[in-house]
Amino acid sequence: MLLYVVLSAILATNISEAIPAFLAPRSEKKWARFASALMLCIICMFPIVPEFALTYIVSFMLFAAYMLIFYKDKLEKIAAFSVIFFSVIGSWSFMIVSWSETILRNSTPFWLYAIAACLLIIFAFLYFSIFRSYASMVSSSMVLESFTRRMWGYSTIIALTPSILVLSAVANPPKNNLALSFIAFFALFASTMVFPLIHQMGRSAKLSEENSRLKARTEYYQDIEMQQEQFRKLKHDLMNHFTVIATYLDLGENEKAVEYLKELGTKFSQMTQQYTKSTLINAILNAKAQKASSRNLELKIKADVSSNITVDETELCTLIANSIDNAIEANPPDGKIIVEIADDGTTLFYSISNRYANEIKRKKDGSFITSKDDSRNHGFGLRNINEAVVKLGGTIKITTENGIFRIYAEIPLRKQA
To answer: How far is it, in rounded angstroms, from Cα 260 to Cα 150?
Structure first.
């Protein structure tokens, strides 16, 4: 009995240290921490009795209630970590119960029992040092931020596997003690391996996001290059244009010469609009204006930005380019996209709005659901925009009112040295 209490206490201590690395406690008050620690100790010491599956089910229900009571986050994330951590709790509890019963059933001499107990305690410390390292690897990295609801669902299903294995062994334990011990140990090993698996899933999701951001930036530079190429072609043909104008003038067709000159001036102005004093913002807006025009859309731009704005240009590029691309892809029914950008010396204000025809769907957490068929490889635009604004230290608000989709961001400007 004493051995069971010691091993359960080790379990409760390590689990209580691991959970806050993934989920935020609902309260930091002393009474809440005490109640949380007490309830977790009771759950970890709750005996899982072989051939009585109800004990395992009740233990899981108690732990799920514990997670909902004392921690806060998205429901799917809490559900996933309830299953993930209980896989460890259930596997560990079943293993020490089965091992303890094996030792007691064989009428083990006290000295041998003492050695076995010491070995189990040493094993506990070794195992939980590995457990903490894996848990730390996942929690210390930012990979979990990229998890979607579907990925949390997959994680829950994966984590259920060792729990189902233990439940099966509890309901119908094998008569062979060695087989029982192997099942318990394998379930514990599988429960621990869920953490590096989650880490890999998160890294894959993060890589997908980074690829999406890289693709957006590549498209932006391609737009810039296309714009410059058009400008070079127009410049190369300038002498030919002058020849045409001179011919019209020689023939006395002054009106045609004036009309041709106006058309030539329009082409130049479309490619070299001076929206702001910022070279970067001008380049982005000119490129996106060309792209909108190629889709028969009008990009209305109101800009008043100083030439020496001090923000991370890469993230600013992500914000402006992605938001305009999203608006172009939305294909507004009235054909108009309105972009407003200004600064007051301390803050950069950015707004983009467009009308929409199709229904805009949101998840329960407020995030938007992409309307594209290939949802697995799309839907990163708004997430990239949000991340860019966060990295710039700003705030963002996205609204869908009166048939208008609007993104509004405020970004603090760094003080110049």
So the answer is: 58
| CB contact at 8 A, 354 and 338 | yes
Asked whether 330 and 292 are in contact (CB, 8 A), the reply is no
CA distances from 148 to 76, 207, 229, 268 (A): 9, 14, 40, 46
Interaxial angle between packed helices 75-105 and 110-140, expressed in degrees from 0 to 180 and rounded to the nearest 10: 170
pTM of the entire predicted model = 0.58
Beta bridge partners, 342, equal 304, 349
CA angle 231, 216, 150 (to 5 degrees): 160
Can you tell me the distance from the alpha carbon of 229 to that of 237, in angstroms, rounded to the nearest whole number?
12
pLDDT reading at 267 higher than 90:
no
pLDDT in tens, 31-50: 888 998 889 888 888 877 77
For residue 232, give the amino acid letter: R
Tokens read off for 25: 């406690």
Residue of 271, 285, 101 whose CA lies nearest to 180: 101
Residue with tokens 């391609």: 222
Per-residue tokens: 199? 């880490």
Instruction: Indicate the helix (H) or strand (E) that contains 304.
Output: strand 298-304
Which H or E element spans position 339? strand 336-343
- Beta-strand relationship, 336-343 and 347-355: antiparallel
